[in-house]
């Protein structure tokens, strides 16, 4: 959709395959690269941004990119609260100003929570996460 800004706070955790040689896994490199992948797939280039059909689709694309880049990662979990920003309608302010997709307003709190795990094909499924 092009009628609002996609916004969230990303929480992510990943599972290193039990077959991976931990002496050859650079945990710092993985962490830093995953942050870069998240920013690239979520935000895109600063001047143009990146269109997203949905938070779920973007989450899946991030997971795909991480699993493709790091053979040692068997799965990656995401938790993304859906925080909405809507365009401001200047007509309510009795002004001739027009909003050309530049001014947005948010509301307190998230409007939903999207969680998913992207798992490498053939990998052992991660344990089910339960919250009480």
Automatic annotation (TrEMBL):
Keyword Magnesium: no
Domain of life where this protein originates: Eukaryota
A single cellular component GO annotation: peroxisome
Any one Gene Ontology BP term: urate catabolic process
Gene3D superfamilies reported in the protein's UniProt record: Urate Oxidase
Keywords: Oxidoreductase, Purine metabolism
Residues in the signal sequence: none
Pathway the protein acts in: Purine metabolism; urate degradation; (S)-allantoin from urate: step 1/3
Principal EC category: oxidoreductase
InterPro entries per UniProt: Uricase
Pfam family name, one: Uricase
Enzyme Commission no: 1.7.3.3
GO MF, one annotated term: urate oxidase activity
Coiled coil: none
PANTHER family per record: URICASE (PTHR42874)
Family: Belongs to the uricase family.
Protein name, as recorded: factor independent urate hydroxylase
Lineage: Eukaryota, Haptista, Haptophyta, Prymnesiophyceae, Coccolithales
């Amino acid at each position: 959709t092009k009628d609002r800004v996609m916004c969230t706070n990303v929480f992510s955790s990943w599972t290193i395959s039990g077959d991976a040689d931990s002496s050859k896994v650079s945990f710092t490199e993985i962490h830093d690269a995953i942050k870069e992948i998240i920013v690239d797939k979520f935000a895109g280039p600063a001047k143009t941004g990146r269109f997203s059909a949905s938070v779920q689709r973007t989450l899946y694309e991030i997971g795909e990119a991480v699993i493709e880049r790091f053979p040692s990662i068997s799965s990656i979990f995401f938790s993304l609260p859906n925080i909405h920003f809507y365009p401001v309608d200047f007509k309510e302010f009795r002004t001739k100003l027009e909003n050309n997709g530049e001014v947005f307003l948010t509301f307190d709190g998230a409007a939903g929570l999207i969680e998913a795990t992207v798992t490498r094909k053939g990998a052992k499924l991660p344990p089910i996460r339960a919250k009480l």
